[in-house]
Amino acid sequence: MPNKALSILSAMIFLALWQGLASYLHSHTLPTPVVVAMVFWKECRSGQLPFHLGVTLLRLVVSFTIAMSLGCAIGIMLGRSKKLDSFFDNWLVIFLNVPALVTIILCYVWFGLVESAAILAVVVNKLPNVIVTIREGTKALDQDLLDMARCYRFSRRKILQHVIWPQLHPFVMGATRTGLALIWKIILVVELLGRSNGMGYQLHLFFQLFDVASILAYTVAFVSVIQLIELTILKPLDRKSQQWRR
Amino acid sequence: MADIHITIHNKTFATATEPTIADFTLSLVSGEFVCLVGASGCGKTTLLNIIADLDYDYDGDIVVGQQHKSPKIGYIFQNPRLLPWRTVRENIELALPDDYAGDVVDNLLDIMQLTPHQHVYADRLSLGMGRRVSIIRAFAVNPELLLMDEPFVSLDPPTARQVRALLLQLWQQRPHTVLFVTHDLREAITLADKLIFLSANPMQIISEVLVAIPRNERNNELAVENFRQQLLNEHPDIKQLL
């Protein structure tokens, strides 16, 4: 498989460049990949990295689930009803454009430095994105198929499961992918500002100590986990639901 | 099965000033195969959508037997309108109630020669196969009225002939009241018990003609052609519709 070889080669070149540059600069602020790997191993053995990574992942799962399910429901409703859509359109624009930092600060100020405020802040940041994506998907639904379902008196559940959902699938996957990328970045800020555990909190500590090797080690861990989610959950899900395509 | 009476006093689209259909009545005797023939754009599809309850913005009434209601419909659309992400069998079964009998579907698949393809995704079917699946779906729900909106329109002639023959075979085994829309007079004569010719703006019935050719002679192209010539000679106003 030449493509696979190519991607391995590109990763090797990336590491080699990093190693070369770091050896050349010989600076405390750019450790070599070998040093990062050693720090990574040490942090794993001490249990620190798995713990903080786990806490952050848990927050990711909870806020992602809430944002996706709420966003899909509201998005479908807005896509199906012109009146609701024109009423809530302005609200959406406002929420889409409020900076993440503002929502986070407001949530902490209003609800205190608690877990639920952290989750709420992440959800409020992600929700408008999901709603807009799913709303556009719902507007593009094939009216002919919906008419067919109506005329054959499909139940609401059948329409949702067999007519609407398969058409929304690409939009949901799009929202999922951008959502994961967006949410974990926001979660780190949420943790940095108001939690005493998680990746964000740890990164904040390392920043104060100028411990770049640890920052990179944590980053590598997180990127790997996200990549793992993509490979083991999203890709197979995609393949399964797209197998009808020629 | 019950007779069906359709009355449409007025159907005007929001974007139009003139009504598309006005003062229109149509009665369908149970088990009858009726072909509606008219120029494209005269409102045939609008009529079918009203009957199928897909368009309820009109002034009129539909009576099935003694009841004021929309009949239970099997609709064969111009495009098959199958769910491409479901298999042939799933597409049929989804239209059925949850407690349907599986052998009905088996039997229909068999008649339509689709048994070997029942687990193929609808997206991968040829045009003719898709039409056959949509015919099965329409018969499987055991409707009070079968609506067909030019279902053979974009098929090549041999495929159209084949699907038409299969449709007739199925209909003779399982008689249903049929309302079939076409602008192909030969096709109408081959299939129908009764032809109804429609004018446009607003849509109205110009004439009704019973097809006098016995069912077993409908494959005889000469008989169909003779009937067509005779029809055009007797009703010169039909010519301009075609």
How would you explain this protein's 3D organization?
The complex is a heterodimer of chains A (246) and B (242). Chain A has 246 residues and is mainly alpha-helical. Chain A contains ten helices and no strands. In chain A, 87% of the residues lie in helices and 0% in strands. In chain A, helix 3 packs across helix 8 (156-194), helix 6 (115-139) runs antiparallel to helix 8 (156-194) and helix 8 (156-194) runs antiparallel to helix 10. In chain A, 30% of the residues are buried. Chain B has 242 residues and is of the alpha/beta class. Helix content of chain B is 33%, strand content 24%. Chain B contains eight helices and ten strands. In chain B, the strands form two sheets. In chain B, strands 6-7-8-3-9-10 form a six-stranded mixed sheet, sandwiched between helices. Chain B has a four-stranded antiparallel sheet with strand order 2-1-4-5, with no helix packed on it. The relative contact order of chain B is 0.18. The chains are: A mainly alpha (246), B alpha/beta (242). The interface between A and B is medium-sized, with 18 and 24 residues.
